[in-house]
Amino acid sequence: MSSSSSSAAAAAGGLTPSILLLLAVFLSLFPPSLSQKSCTLDTFSQNRLYSLCNSLPQLSANLHWTYHPQNSTVDVAYRAPQTSDGWIAWALNPTGAGMDGAQTIFAFHDSRNAMTAVSSPITFANPTVKNSSLSFKVYSMSSEFISDTMIIYAIIELPRNRTKVNHVWQASNIFTNGLPSGHATTGPNMHSSLTLDFLSGQSSVSVNSGLRRKNIHGVLNSVSWGILMPLGAIVARYMRVFGSADPAWFYLHVACQCSAYIVGVAGWGTGLKLGSDSKGITYSSHRNIGITLFCLATLQVFALLLRPNKDHKYRLYWNVYHHAIGYTVIILSIVNIFKGFDILDPDRRWKNTYVAIIATLGGIAVVLEAVTWSIVLKRRRSGGSDKPYRSSNGTVGVNSYA
Ligand code: HEM
Ligand SMILES: *[C@@H]1O[C@H](CO)[C@@H](O)[C@H](O)[C@H]1NC(C)=O
Ligand SMILES: *[C@@H]1O[C@H](CO)[C@@H](O)[C@H](O)[C@H]1NC(C)=O
Ligand SMILES: *[C@@H]1O[C@H](CO)[C@@H](O)[C@H](O)[C@H]1NC(C)=O
Ligand SMILES: *[C@@H]1O[C@H](CO)[C@@H](O)[C@H](O)[C@H]1NC(C)=O
Questions:
Q1: Interior angle at CA 236, CA 233 and CA 241, nearest 5
Q2: Tell me, what's the pLDDT at 6?
Q3: Which residues are part of a known binding site for heme b?
């Protein structure tokens, strides 16, 4: 009896270290996945089940969800430890990252001490909670308080059917007039935002200032390369037809192209910076076209200084060269702007706006081309110069290169 119990104890004594060793080996094999997936232990009332979950890196919060591709909705449950006098919040930010613009669902105890869920968009400029609708559909939302944990349940429509969305979450005890009104602005409360793919469950860091910088990059480049440059070309090609506008077109053209070049180089610089900051991701064709554009446009600006006199025998070659590079730059610019739209994927109206502008410029060019040729043909018939761009009395402004 005593021997068997002692042998059992000896066996246990021998087993425990080896089990521990095995466990240690096992743990060391899977440390991140084990620690990341503590959310799998969560359970919910009414037997609610979710197909995926993430343990969020701040505020001990967990997010659970089921994605329905058929209607592009997600059922989510966000839970975080909280005392009964506090609030929790979970938000998608479809237009940025972090809190600014977050489409938020709050949960807290209302004035009658009942748990309530309230939706409200918030921005840095106006973080007041208003109980108003969000930028996407919320089919249902409710909340729960169980043993110092608050939970938000919601069924929402993913904005623009994007599964990869920036989300942000928060927990705090600060209220004003019974509504959430602020949180700690240090530590984990400042880092509670990520990009989440509801399809794969993959999470990645969303850079807050990144989107703003990308937008600046997009605006600078579309305005300069995408609008000013073609406008300058239209000025050069069509204003010349009218003799009275003779020196004027040249100055307008130079002003257009030089300001486009300056703004464009600034935009190009922001692009290089974005590229070097986003290690691991390269959009090679967008980048290469951008670099080519910079080289061609720089060449174009410096070629101005080497422009032969209008009577020089090489002036014709210079003109051919200048036109060829000019049109190449415009075509490449437009191509690259559309590549940029695809990468940045901003709200559709930005792309639509650009398409409208470039289509208008194209339409104007077509009309002016027709007008130009009718003028030229008329001049030919009346025995005038058959060069489309020469002034009506044959003299040309000093700066003109026609
Ligand atoms: C309810 C009223 C709220 C007020 C008055 C408020 C106020 C602030 C302030 C003053 C900052 C610091 C800004 C800075 O120093 O750069 C901040 C940052 C932040 N807030 Fe709020 N906040 C509110 C609600 C929320 C909610 C509901 C969330 C999440 C759903 C949230 C998430 C964040 C995050 C993640 C940051 C860090 C910066 C960022 O990523 O945008 N806040 N908030
Ligand atoms: C979305 O589709 C899923 C699966 O087909 C369905 O269970 C759910 O009720 C739908 N949700 C909405 C809001 O239509
Ligand atoms: C949303 O996207 C998914 C995956 O790309 C697709 O299968 C689904 O049909 C889309 N749903 C809607 C409502 O557009
Ligand atoms: C929020 O507004 C809805 C109606 O728009 C109302 O039914 C609900 O009680 C409001 N909640 C709070 C907390 O004010
Ligand atoms: C035509 O030539 C005269 C000088 O001969 C010049 O003053 C004038 O600006 C030219 N252009 C037009 C459109 O008359």
A1: 135
A2: 44
A3: 217, 253, 286, 322
pLDDT of residue 280: 52
| pLDDT value for 113 | 94
Q: Which residues of the chain have pLDDT under 50?
A: 1-15, 17, 20-23, 25-36, 386, 388-402
Pocket lining: 200 vs ligand 3, CB cutoff 6 Å: no
Backbone angles phi, psi at 50, to 5 degrees: -125, 150
Residue 307 DSSP SS3: coil
Residue 227 φ then ψ, to 5°: -120, -55
Sign of CA dihedral 356, 357, 362, 363: positive
- Helix (H) or strand (E) holding 63, with range, is strand 62-68
**Ligand 2 centre and the CA of 204: distance in Å?**
27
Task: Please name each of the domains of the chain with its CATH number.
Answer: 3-30+210-398 (1.20.120), 45-207 (2.60.40.1210)
What is the reported pTM? Answer: 0.55
* Cα-based distances in Å from 320 to 115, 143, 196, 297, 372: 75, 71, 52, 15, 19
Residue type, 174: I
CA 395 – ligand 5 centroid, Å: 7
Residue nearest to atom 17 of ligand 1 (CA): 185
In this structure, the residue with its CA closest to atom 7 of ligand 5 is 395
Residue 153 · residue 142 · CB < 8 Å = yes
Question: At a CB cut-off of 8 Å and minimum separation 6, what does 131 contact?
Answer: 118, 119, 120
SS3 content of the chain, % helix, strand, coil (to 5): 50, 20, 30
Q: Which of 241, 393, 396, 399 to mutate to test the pocket of ligand 5 (most atoms within 8 A of CB)?
A: 393
Ligand 1: residue whose CA is nearest its atom 27 = 89
Asked if residue 244 has its Cβ within 6 Å of ligand 5, the reply is: yes
Contacts of 371 (CB under 8 A, 6+ apart): 238, 241
Sign of the torsion formed by the C-alpha atoms of 109, 111, 117 and 123 = negative
**Residues recorded for the chain:** 402
